[in-house]
Specification:
By secondary structure, this protein is α/β, with parallel strands linked by helices. 27% of the residues lie in helices and 16% in strands. The strands form two sheets. It has a six-stranded mixed β-sheet with strand order 2-1-3-4-5-8, sandwiched between helices. The two termini are 17 Å apart.
Length: 265
């Protein structure tokens, strides 16, 4: 079976997941590709009659070993229509724990048929110049792996997988680990540096930043993805809560050794 079209389904606040699945798509060498970006609520495009492309590439970041709940709620609105899918998680060099098996299971639940999977590394949201954690990843080597993965998927899809009903085996546990996220923590704003440009407002996946007063972020909505921090041109946004700094120091001390992508075909 030939792959002519692919749909890229993604949640990628800081663009690292998007970069990886685009690299995979390049390796697939498809004629057409369509984006189903679940990152921002006002740009979500759900296929009205279900997914119709030849192959889906589904990408999500890992938060504390699980998938972001906001991503899952948006993802579950898509109907897979039995289409084959490549599932990809991107984590910050610590561990992806149950995220990949969770993505596999949810993809099956909504009608996709996972045929391949990958766990890639992206720069951690808590990474700073003082405490770099997977700095500048995905890098050239990661992208080469993603491109090669796409080529391997194309070969497998065309030769041996199109009619199999075997369950794709990936690491992880079920029941999943309990989500343990810090609560009540939001990026702070250095008012002296803030330009009032509001570039942080439209990149927030949960509309947590007040568009009238971007100094204010709703603590009950913020998922600490750091999209606003990375979008700030004057470095006025900071995730400088002592609990975050403590977590970053722990990550830097224990997970600075480079990890490589893992592929499951």
């Amino acid at each position: 079976m030939i792959i002519d079209s692919t749909g890229l389904i993604l949640f990628s606040p800081t663009q690292t997941t998007k970069k990886i699945i685009e690299g995979i798509a390049q390796g697939l060498q498809v004629t057409t590709k369509q984006y189903f970006d679940l990152t921002l609520p006002d740009t979500i495009a759900h296929p009205s009659q279900g997914f119709t492309q030849d192959l889906a590439i589904i990408g999500a970041p890992v938060y504390a070993g699980r998938l972001p709940s906001v991503m899952l709620s948006r993802f579950k609105q898509i109907k897979g229509n039995g289409r084959p899918a490549v599932i990809v998680v991107v984590y910050g060099n610590r561990a992806y724990e149950d995220a990949l098996i969770e993505l596999r299971n949810v993809a099956i639940e909504i009608g996709f048929k996972p045929i391949a999977a990958g766990a890639f590394i992206g720069e951690h949201s808590y990474s700073t110049s003082d405490l770099p954690i997977a700095k500048s990843r995905p890098d050239a080597d990661d992208m080469a792996t993603a491109h090669k993965f796409g080529k391997e998927i194309r070969k497998k899809f065309m030769t041996e997988i199109s009619n199999t009903n075997e369950l794709l085996q990936v690491p992880g546990n079920f029941p999943y680990k309990e989500i343990q996220m810090l609560s009540g923590v939001v990026p702070s704003v250095n008012e002296a540096l803030c330009l009032r440009c509001r570039k942080c407002v439209p990149v927030c996946p949960t509309v947590a930043i007040d568009k009238e007063n971007p100094m204010n972020t709703a603590k009950d909505l913020c998922i600490r993805c750091c999209a606003c921090v990375k979008a700030c041109p004057s470095y006025a946004k900071l995730l400088d809560d002592p609990r975050i700094k403590q977590a970053a120091e722990w990550l830097y001390a224990n997970f600075s050794v480079r990890k490589e992508p893992e592929i499951y075909l």
